């Protein structure tokens, strides 16, 4: 249910903002995972967009059955697989078009702790202009190779933003203020697959959006299905970092050196 919050900080003297939250879940062949997540979301009764990203028939059937069972679930279908980033963007745009102000992104594969949703939304309500991102605390289930690969991306993101503000750019458990993220996604071409999560954070940081990290438990379910394509997605992420580094350098070049600024008396 939407509720009123008193804006603070950068919002200034604007009128009170209605914080209207929803949940966005990208789904690709995770029908059982989406059903399990839906059961955990029942007590929250938060409007939820499940984006079917060209899934198999079993998953499509499962998702539409969930929509029939729960009036707070809306299924949006992609006729073919477009990638996680594209699915998330479809969900964010659908949420904005429906009148929601904030969207919590969570994966359907069971990695994220859905019990943390109220805490994430409470922090987002307190800081409605900011992006709230998960900073994972992994258990022993995490593949060591994943940790190493993630660290390389973190280092690149710290370089691209010239800060350590973004603690973990890969975690897909986060809350977006739609008024900030939609214009950025409309202005530039954002990665449509696994490169979406880190790129959108870097570009939001460049726009001056504050990014807050919250510690959260992350686990890899036994027998879980990963859609990360080792060679293709690593290449896309590498190309993303190349573009972002070029963009970061261009931004630095456009800044005037301190000595060249005119002094005013």
Structural summary, described in words:
This protein has one domain (3-256): Spore Coat Polysaccharide Biosynthesis Protein SpsA, Chain A (Alpha-Beta Complex), CATH 3.90.550. 42% of the residues lie in helices and 18% in strands. The chain has eight helices and nine strands. The protein has helices at 31-41, 57-69, 84-97, 117-126, 144-161, 178-187, 196-206, 230-254, and strands at residues 3-5, 17-19, 21-27, 48-53, 73-78, 102-105, 131-138, 174-177, 211-218. The strands form two sheets. It has a seven-stranded mixed sheet, sandwiched between helices. A two-stranded antiparallel ribbon has the order 1-2. The N and C termini lie far apart (53 Å).
Kindly report the CATH topology.
Spore Coat Polysaccharide Biosynthesis Protein SpsA, Chain A
Proportion of beta-strand residues: 15-25%
Low-confidence runs of at least 5 consecutive residues: 1-15, 257-265
* Strand order within the widest beta sheet: 5-4-3-6-8-7-9
Integer count of domains: 1
**How many strands appear in the DSSP assignment?**
9
Radius of gyration: 19 Å
Biggest sheet overview: 7 strands, mixed
